[in-house]
Each structure stands twice: as structure tokens, then as C-alpha cells.
Amino acid sequence: MTKLQPSARRLMRIREAAQYLCLSPWKLRHIIQSGELPIIKYNENAPWLLDLRDLDTWVDRNKRVID
After folding, report:
1. I want to staple 48 with a disulfide (CB 3.0 to 4.6 A). Which of 6, 34, 37, 39 is the partner?
2. What's the pTM value of the predicted model, to 2 decimals?
3. d(Cα 43, Cα 64) in Å, to the nearest integer?
4. Any idea what the Cα angle at residue 13 is, between residues 64 and 27, rounded to 5°?
């Protein structure tokens, strides 16, 4: 079993952020478009960037205990 190494960067592109969250890039785009996660987009042609702290906050908000 390989251990995921934390990213040294604070901002990630969709593919890297999806891997960090163990989601597909498609699912992550859906979450972003639904307004659950903010993105950084500094101009029209720039890629979507996600802040590592926002990803961690999203994980914490979505934790559930199943009985």
C-alpha cells in the first residue's frame, strides 16, 4: 500500500485536487459547480485552482458517522 504524500503547494489543479480527495476529476467539477467548493480563477483562460485548506475544510464538513 502506498501512502499519499501531502502536496508541498497550497494551490492545486483539478486533477491533483481530485486525487487528494480520492474523487474523479468529473466528480470534483460537479462539487465545484454546485457551489460546495470555491475555486481560484485569476483570468478567463486560467485553469481552475483549489486551495488545499478549502479541500480540508470540505472533508471536515462532509464527515459522517454511520450507525
Report:
1. 39
2. 0.81
3. 36
4. 45
Q: How far is the C-alpha of 23 from the C-alpha of 55, rounded, in Å?
A: 12
pLDDT tens sequence for the chain (67 residues): 555 555 568 999 999 999 999 999 999 999 999 999 999 998 999 999 999 999 999 999 999 999 8
The residue to which cell 499519499 is assigned = 4
- DSSP letters, 47-60, are PPEEEHHHHHHHHH
Q: How many residues in total does the chain contain?
A: 67
Domain boundaries, the chain: 11-60
